[in-house]
């Protein structure tokens, strides 16, 4: 029997992300920035799930990107439908060799490596209700601000 998984207080990361997943997330984050989407990794959602990447656009659009590093990762983790209630568009980000035909048709597809990414299938839009948008935006802003504060003053308790 093992104890609770140790989590990084700034990222909510359980430190189990594979190097491949980290590279896909890095390239996807770069692409999101090029689209003027400010992204935050490993954001805990109000339902207890954790979005791999959540991004906020200039007009308040919210995207969630679920990173899948392998077909085994995709098959083992079927929680992705629970992210839909917290975003306007839901995406999968995968490596170039990933078999894209297994990904659900109701999601967008991003192909990424550590240097960048490309949208290969647009995600359908499903607009968030105003109250959920506000709550999710505030959660994203507060967590991003706390992480920035901790990065600029790592010795502060």
Write the layout of secondary structure elements.
Layout: H1 19-34, E1 38-44, E2 50-56, E3 62-68, H2 71-76, E4 89-94, E5 108-113, E6 116-121, H3 130-152
Parallel strand pairs: 3-4, 4-5
Antiparallel strand pairs: 1-2, 2-3, 5-6
Question: Can you walk through the features of this model?
Answer:
With 157 residues, this protein is α/β, with parallel strands linked by helices. 29% of the residues lie in helices and 25% in strands. It contains three helices and six strands, in the order H-E-E-E-H-E-E-E-H. The protein has a six-stranded mixed sheet with strand order 1-2-3-4-5-6. The N terminus is likely disordered.
Unreliable stretches (pLDDT < 50, length at least 5) are 1-14
Largest sheet: 6 strands, mixed
Distance N to C terminus: 31 Å
Give the overall form. globular
User: Structural class from helices and strands?
Assistant: alpha/beta
């Amino acid at each position: 029997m093992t104890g609770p998984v140790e989590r990084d207080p700034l990222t909510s990361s359980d430190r189990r992300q594979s190097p491949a997943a980290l590279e896909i997330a890095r390239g996807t984050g770069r692409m999101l920035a090029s689209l003027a989407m400010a992204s935050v990794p490993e954001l805990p959602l109000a339902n207890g799930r954790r979005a791999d990447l959540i991004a906020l656009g200039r007009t308040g659009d919210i995207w969630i990107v679920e990173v899948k590093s392998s077909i085994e990762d995709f098959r083992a983790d079927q929680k992705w439908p629970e992210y839909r209630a917290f975003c306007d568009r839901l995406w999968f980000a995968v490596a170039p060799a990933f078999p894209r035909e297994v990904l659900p048709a109701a999601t967008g597809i991003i192909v990424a490596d550590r240097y960048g990414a490309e949208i290969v299938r647009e995600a359908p839009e499903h607009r968030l209700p105003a109250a959920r948008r506000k709550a999710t935006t505030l959660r994203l802003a507060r967590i991003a601000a706390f992480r920035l504060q901790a990065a600029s003053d790592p010795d502060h308790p």
